[in-house]
Design brief:
Largest sheet: none
Helix content: 55-70%
Strand content: under 5%
Distance between the termini: 76 Å
Number of helices: 5
Order of helices and strands: HHHHH
Structural class: mainly alpha
Shape: globular
Number of strands: 0
């Protein structure tokens, strides 16, 4: 009879010692992650499209202040306006799949963007003018705040359905 070392023996059945939780199986973790993505898929798509808008916004902002020598708030105005047009089109057709009453929805989207613009301008103004932070860092600080604010407003106002469950 051969005796195996202790580390080669199968693990004992039953709960882990000291009340510790057993590690979740990779399959269970994958299933939970998949369910989380599905539950938040609209927000995630909005964030991805928003990422494209951020690249447009921050890229134009950086060029305007670095190359053009433009004041940070004027650069923020121009870069935000261009990114808003891109984001509206992408979110209308991609995230919310609502393409009727586009002029009215664009006006609403632009108003929501205006709220985000005021919030980002206040943060940039305080961050650069009072705290002395670099403009790009100040702009970066605004991004998560404005993302959550605008998604919430656009979902409930701009792209809401007239009747529950439809996209009219």
């Amino acid at each position: 009879m051969t005796i195996r070392p202790a580390e080669a023996l199968p693990a004992a059945a039953g709960p882990p010692p000291n009340g510790a939780r057993a590690p979740a199986s990779p399959r269970a973790a994958s299933t939970r992650a998949h369910a989380l993505v599905l539950r938040h898929s609209q927000f995630l798509l909005y964030a991805v499209i928003g990422g494209g808008g951020v690249i447009i916004d921050v890229g134009i902002f950086a060029v305007l202040i670095a190359v053009g020598g433009m004041h940070v708030l004027l650069a923020n105005t121009i870069s935000t306006a261009i990114a808003v047009v891109y984001s509206f089109a992408a979110n209308s057709y991609g995230t919310f799949k609502v393409t009727n009453r586009l002029l009215l929805r664009f006006a609403s989207f632009a108003a929501v963007a205006g709220v985000g613009f005021v919030v980002s301008s206040l943060i940039i103004g305080v961050s650069v003018g009072i705290l002395g932070l670099p403009p790009l860092l100040a702009k970066a600080i605004t991004l998560p705040v404005v993302l959550i604010l605008q998604f919430s407003l656009n979902k409930t106002i701009t792209f809401r359905s007239r009747t529950e469950g439809t996209h009219s």
